[in-house]
Amino acid sequence: MTVPLFPPTTSGIGHMDAEPLDRGPRFVRTGGMSRWHRPRSGVLMADARTIYAVWCGQQVGGSRRAAGLLTASTIPDTLPVCATCDGRAVGTGQEQDGPAGRTLVFGPRHLAPPRFCPASRSSLYEALPGGTAARCLACSDVHPIRAMGGPYASRVGIVQHPPGARLFAPCPFHRWRHPTLTDAGLRCACGRPLTAP
Fold this sequence. Notes:
Order of helices and strands: EEEEEEEEHEEEEEE
Oligomer: single chain
Largest sheet: 4 strands, antiparallel
Radius of gyration: 21 Å
Distance between the termini: 32 Å
Strand content: 25-35%
Number of domains: 2
Number of helices: 1
Number of strands: 14
Protein backbone atom coordinates (compact mmCIF):
# COMPACT_ATOMS: atom_id res chain seq x y z
CA MET A 1 0.00 0.00 0.00
CA THR A 2 1.28 3.46 -0.87
CA VAL A 3 0.22 6.93 0.28
CA PRO A 4 0.09 10.27 -1.56
CA LEU A 5 3.13 12.49 -1.00
CA PHE A 6 3.12 16.27 -0.74
CA PRO A 7 5.30 18.48 -2.96
CA PRO A 8 8.89 18.50 -1.60
CA THR A 9 8.95 22.17 -0.61
CA THR A 10 12.31 23.32 0.64
CA SER A 11 13.74 26.55 1.94
CA GLY A 12 16.95 25.94 0.01
CA ILE A 13 17.53 25.47 -3.69
CA GLY A 14 16.25 22.15 -5.04
CA HIS A 15 18.21 19.79 -7.23
CA MET A 16 17.82 20.18 -10.99
CA ASP A 17 18.64 16.47 -11.34
CA ALA A 18 15.76 15.35 -9.08
CA GLU A 19 12.14 14.57 -9.85
CA PRO A 20 9.43 14.86 -7.15
CA LEU A 21 7.49 11.70 -6.29
CA ASP A 22 3.72 11.79 -5.86
CA ARG A 23 3.34 8.43 -4.05
CA GLY A 24 5.46 6.56 -1.53
CA PRO A 25 5.45 3.86 1.16
CA ARG A 26 3.48 4.32 4.40
CA PHE A 27 6.53 3.84 6.65
CA VAL A 28 10.25 4.46 6.07
CA ARG A 29 13.46 4.25 8.10
CA THR A 30 17.11 3.33 7.84
CA GLY A 31 18.74 0.46 9.69
CA GLY A 32 20.29 2.93 12.13
CA MET A 33 17.03 4.67 13.14
CA SER A 34 15.30 3.76 16.38
CA ARG A 35 11.75 4.11 15.04
CA TRP A 36 9.67 4.08 11.87
CA HIS A 37 8.76 7.42 10.24
CA ARG A 38 6.02 8.61 7.89
CA PRO A 39 7.15 10.22 4.59
CA ARG A 40 5.97 13.73 3.75
CA SER A 41 7.62 14.02 0.33
CA GLY A 42 10.11 12.20 -1.84
CA VAL A 43 12.44 12.75 -4.75
CA LEU A 44 14.09 10.42 -7.22
CA MET A 45 17.66 11.55 -7.92
CA ALA A 46 19.38 11.13 -11.29
CA ASP A 47 21.69 8.51 -9.73
CA ALA A 48 18.59 6.36 -8.87
CA ARG A 49 18.66 7.17 -5.12
CA THR A 50 15.26 7.77 -3.54
CA ILE A 51 15.19 10.33 -0.73
CA TYR A 52 12.21 10.82 1.56
CA ALA A 53 11.61 13.83 3.80
CA VAL A 54 9.63 12.69 6.84
CA TRP A 55 7.12 14.75 8.83
CA CYS A 56 9.40 15.26 11.85
CA GLY A 57 12.03 17.01 9.69
CA GLN A 58 14.58 14.28 9.01
CA GLN A 59 15.58 12.83 5.65
CA VAL A 60 15.67 9.11 4.98
CA GLY A 61 17.67 7.48 2.21
CA GLY A 62 19.88 10.38 1.15
CA SER A 63 23.25 9.14 2.33
CA ARG A 64 25.20 6.53 0.43
CA ARG A 65 26.71 5.46 3.78
CA ALA A 66 23.35 4.98 5.51
CA ALA A 67 22.41 1.52 6.66
CA GLY A 68 19.94 1.03 3.80
CA LEU A 69 16.49 2.41 3.16
CA LEU A 70 13.73 0.26 4.67
CA THR A 71 10.09 0.66 3.67
CA ALA A 72 6.88 -0.99 4.86
CA SER A 73 3.15 -0.73 4.28
CA THR A 74 2.30 -2.16 7.70
CA ILE A 75 4.32 -2.69 10.85
CA PRO A 76 3.55 -4.66 14.02
CA ASP A 77 2.04 -2.74 16.94
CA THR A 78 5.10 -3.64 19.04
CA LEU A 79 7.50 -1.55 16.92
CA PRO A 80 7.88 2.16 17.72
CA VAL A 81 6.62 4.83 15.28
CA CYS A 82 7.60 8.51 15.43
CA ALA A 83 4.60 10.25 17.03
CA THR A 84 5.26 13.56 15.25
CA CYS A 85 5.30 11.84 11.87
CA ASP A 86 2.26 9.68 12.57
CA GLY A 87 0.12 12.53 13.90
CA ARG A 88 0.99 14.92 11.08
CA ALA A 89 0.54 12.30 8.36
CA VAL A 90 -2.95 11.52 9.60
CA GLY A 91 -3.78 15.16 10.38
CA THR A 92 -3.05 16.31 6.82
CA GLY A 93 -5.33 13.68 5.34
CA GLN A 94 -2.58 11.40 4.06
CA GLU A 95 -4.59 8.68 5.83
CA GLN A 96 -8.10 8.66 7.25
CA ASP A 97 -7.91 7.47 10.86
CA GLY A 98 -5.57 8.60 13.60
CA PRO A 99 -3.95 6.39 16.22
CA ALA A 100 -6.64 4.58 18.23
CA GLY A 101 -9.33 6.16 16.01
CA ARG A 102 -8.73 9.76 17.18
CA THR A 103 -9.40 12.65 14.76
CA LEU A 104 -6.21 14.65 14.18
CA VAL A 105 -5.71 17.91 12.29
CA PHE A 106 -2.49 19.43 10.93
CA GLY A 107 -1.99 22.17 8.31
CA PRO A 108 1.44 22.13 6.63
CA ARG A 109 2.91 25.43 5.48
CA HIS A 110 3.80 26.39 1.91
CA LEU A 111 1.27 24.19 0.14
CA ALA A 112 -1.62 26.60 -0.44
CA PRO A 113 -1.33 29.51 -2.89
CA PRO A 114 0.06 32.60 -1.17
CA ARG A 115 -2.18 35.26 0.35
CA PHE A 116 -0.28 37.98 -1.52
CA CYS A 117 1.25 37.68 -4.98
CA PRO A 118 4.94 36.67 -4.71
CA ALA A 119 5.87 39.59 -7.00
CA SER A 120 4.31 42.13 -4.61
CA ARG A 121 6.63 44.96 -3.56
CA SER A 122 9.29 43.84 -6.06
CA SER A 123 10.60 44.78 -9.48
CA LEU A 124 8.92 41.79 -11.14
CA TYR A 125 6.69 43.92 -13.34
CA GLU A 126 6.39 45.32 -16.86
CA ALA A 127 5.81 49.07 -16.82
CA LEU A 128 2.83 50.40 -18.75
CA PRO A 129 2.68 53.76 -20.57
CA GLY A 130 2.26 56.64 -18.14
CA GLY A 131 4.65 55.30 -15.50
CA THR A 132 2.12 54.82 -12.69
CA ALA A 133 0.91 51.25 -13.32
CA ALA A 134 2.48 47.97 -14.37
CA ARG A 135 1.59 44.42 -15.35
CA CYS A 136 2.70 41.92 -12.71
CA LEU A 137 4.98 39.25 -14.21
CA ALA A 138 3.84 36.63 -11.68
CA CYS A 139 0.05 36.89 -12.09
CA SER A 140 -0.49 39.22 -15.12
CA ASP A 141 -2.76 41.63 -13.18
CA VAL A 142 -2.29 45.40 -13.52
CA HIS A 143 -1.50 47.35 -10.33
CA PRO A 144 0.09 50.69 -9.39
CA ILE A 145 3.83 51.01 -8.91
CA ARG A 146 5.23 53.06 -6.03
CA ALA A 147 8.49 54.27 -4.56
CA MET A 148 9.49 52.05 -1.63
CA GLY A 149 12.31 51.52 0.83
CA GLY A 150 12.94 54.99 2.29
CA PRO A 151 15.82 57.39 1.57
CA TYR A 152 18.70 54.91 2.05
CA ALA A 153 17.33 51.90 0.15
CA SER A 154 14.92 53.47 -2.32
CA ARG A 155 13.47 51.49 -5.18
CA VAL A 156 10.31 51.23 -7.26
CA GLY A 157 8.05 48.21 -6.92
CA ILE A 158 4.58 47.00 -7.74
CA VAL A 159 2.21 47.39 -4.78
CA GLN A 160 1.25 44.46 -2.56
CA HIS A 161 -1.70 42.70 -4.14
CA PRO A 162 -3.61 39.40 -3.99
CA PRO A 163 -2.54 36.83 -6.60
CA GLY A 164 -4.41 37.08 -9.88
CA ALA A 165 -6.16 34.24 -11.67
CA ARG A 166 -3.10 33.70 -13.89
CA LEU A 167 -0.58 33.22 -11.06
CA PHE A 168 2.29 31.04 -12.29
CA ALA A 169 2.18 27.30 -11.68
CA PRO A 170 4.26 26.48 -8.59
CA CYS A 171 7.78 25.04 -8.70
CA PRO A 172 7.63 21.43 -7.46
CA PHE A 173 10.30 22.23 -4.84
CA HIS A 174 9.79 25.86 -3.83
CA ARG A 175 6.15 26.47 -4.76
CA TRP A 176 5.66 30.25 -5.10
CA ARG A 177 8.53 31.40 -2.87
CA HIS A 178 11.49 32.29 -5.12
CA PRO A 179 10.43 33.90 -8.44
CA THR A 180 13.33 35.49 -10.34
CA LEU A 181 13.42 37.34 -13.64
CA THR A 182 16.06 36.10 -16.10
CA ASP A 183 16.73 36.67 -19.80
CA ALA A 184 14.72 33.49 -20.45
CA GLY A 185 11.70 34.81 -18.52
CA LEU A 186 10.30 34.20 -15.04
CA ARG A 187 12.05 31.31 -13.27
CA CYS A 188 12.37 29.87 -9.80
CA ALA A 189 15.71 30.51 -8.11
CA CYS A 190 16.48 26.80 -8.67
CA GLY A 191 16.29 27.36 -12.45
CA ARG A 192 12.93 25.80 -13.28
CA PRO A 193 10.70 27.92 -15.57
CA LEU A 194 7.57 29.40 -13.98
CA THR A 195 4.63 29.54 -16.38
CA ALA A 196 0.99 30.55 -16.10
CA PRO A 197 -1.36 27.61 -15.43
